[in-house]
Amino acid sequence: MEWAEGWAGPGAVFFAGTSGKDGDRADLLVAPIRDSRGKPVISTQKALTELVRQTREITEYSALQTSWVGWCAAHINPSIQRGARRGEVGADAKPARPVSSSFATIREAIVQADLSEHAAERLGALLRIKVEVVRFKGSDAGGGRILR
Question: Of the candidates 46, 74, 78, 49, which has an alpha carbon nearest to the alpha carbon of residue 63?
Fold first, then answer.
């Protein structure tokens, strides 16, 4: 959430959660607020255009990827790098399988990460959301899946 609010603005993230078979997908719902004719409006296009300028990428999606990897390298692990762009690997190339999400691996990554108090609180909130997702998946209401 800290990354998204960095380019979208404070309070722009109004939902954060995980999904996917193993909870291996993060979902962020973002509503960037920008001024338009002197009034605040939700403007994804303006925020993404600003991000394209900052990152010097050609497309908004590339700008998001570049911004995200830069934040991860600065806040999680300096060795994190951006993957090859589609043109470099071919359109049909599949991404590498993510690193193990075992408890020990995640625990070690959290221990090694240099987090501010604010970032640690947000991580705690995300983990609480993950607990609720897991409970929902196992409940009769969830039917073993997340409704979208």
Answer: 49
Outline where DSSP puts E strands in the chain: 13-19, 25-30, 33-36, 39-42
26 SS3 class:
strand
Distance set, CA 48 to CA 20, 55, 77 (Å): 26, 10, 25
Quick check: 57 and 63 in contact, CB under 8 A?
yes
Query: At CA 123, angle to CA 25 and CA 130, rounded to 5?
Result: 45
The residue among 116 and 92 whose pLDDT is bigger is 116
Q: Residue 29 carries which side chain, given as an amino acid letter?
A: L
Burial call 115-144: b when 16+ CB within 10 Å, e when fewer: eeeeeeebeeeeeebeeebeeebeeeeeee
pTM above threshold 0.70: no
